[in-house]
Amino acid sequence: MTQKPKPLSTIQVNGPIPAAQARAVIESSLREAILDGRLPSGTALRQQELADLFGVSRMPVREALRQLEAQSLLNVVQHKGAVVAPLITSSAVETYALRSVLESFALRLSIPLLDDNDLAMAAHYIEQLETQADHAEIARLNRLFHMSLYHRAPNAKLLDLVEHELNEEERFLRFHLSSMGLGKLTQDDHHAMLAAAAAKDIDQAVYLLEQHLEKASITMRKYLNQ
Prior knowledge:
Blueprint: H1 22-35, E1 44-45, H2 47-54, H3 58-70, E2 74-77, E3 81-84, H4 92-110, H5 116-131, H6 135-150, H7 156-180, H8 188-198, H9 202-225
Antiparallel strand pairs: 1-3, 2-3
Helix pairs in contact: 1-3, 2-3, 4-7, 4-9, 5-6, 5-8, 6-7, 8-9
């Protein structure tokens, strides 16, 4: 009987990792594998196995796992240690309601401070999204587009909260696109939001954002109901 490959076998390590970069390399590698589904929900990540895989001591592994836990990608479970968090939980709809509040506030603060370079970058992300077919890259570009409109908000704590929630959505979006066999998403909402931001029409931009997030919330509810 053929055994299924272990999830960690999907992670490629290219040569020795410099000690100074170990934590960052481990965190990045595991984060990517969680986001694209190679490390599915419920996968236990043992520190010694990871240390052996990356050829490092357990200290940078422990630090990387703490960072991933802070990003809500891992949960610490008694007797199992670090476990890949559920893709989406029943609180996701409430989370989207909170996102609407946080991101609308960030957008209001950011729009007056956006310059031509910011708007050009946002437009560039849309252009890439319109031609991109890779699910992982679509999810990443979606996050970057939103942050390009929010990042001028003069409130670091607010931006940290917003980016945390966008990271969670990135993971779900990758899964959702893949499971539905979709190649790309329509960019109509993003185009409209960018146009309103460029016109400094804050109320219209916020309204469009709220409608955009409500569509995503409906998708979440459908997924949970299934």
